[in-house]
Amino acid sequence: MLVAMVIAVRQALDYESTWRAVGVVVIGFLVQAIVLIMIIRIFGSS
User: pTM for this structure?
Assistant: First the structure.
């Protein structure tokens, strides 16, 4: 799934460098993970 995301970002943003697309995907993944952790801590079982 991450490979598909890298290819999609590279094509959608018209990047020539695959590493730049990898960076965008990694940053997006980290933001998503942080938000998910915050939601779990707020609404998780006590």
Answer: 0.79
